[in-house]
Sequence to fold (205 residues):
Amino acid sequence: MYEVKPLPFTQELDGISQKTNEIHHDKLYTGYVNKANEIGDKLVKLRGEIISGQNPGGNQTYSDLRGLKQGETFAVNGIYLHEWFFGVLGGDGDSRKAPELSAAISLKFGSIDSFIKYFGECAMAARGWAILAWDLHEQALKQYNGDMHNQAVWGCVPILALDVYEHAYFIDHGSDRKAYVEAFFKNLNWEAAEAMFKKASALSL
Fold:
């Protein structure tokens, strides 16, 4: 069973309102958790029917199994991506609090400022998510975009996940996504990102 995790911060963020966070966390994210659990219950039942021969199982054009498995991937990625997104908010945007991650970013992108500029433009180009990830295959930081929750590069652990769907910023910034991206970095908890980077970079395939 998936569980709703509380926001890791209580204060009003600079440029991301309490109202936005309440809708984003309490309705959208919580909705993914509830739907993933609903799908999981249905898959348990369907699995039993398939094993016992009561249900013919999968078909790539359409089947109950195909529909549930597609929904499962979308809902579960919706949970995890939002937890990564909320998990690095609530900070003061000071990258000096993440010395190891800052050094790795500077090595890859030239400097923190260069990374923020590039990542911001990637966020402007994305339809769903902009991700800074530790690529376990390459053993390096990589920036990837995803237009939907179920688009991902396997073998990568997100360090920063920025939700750029309109629901994340429209209440506060209208169509001005760039202002929202700037607000994300103003509120970035670099210490939390540093902790994730240390965990991810210690892994290997």
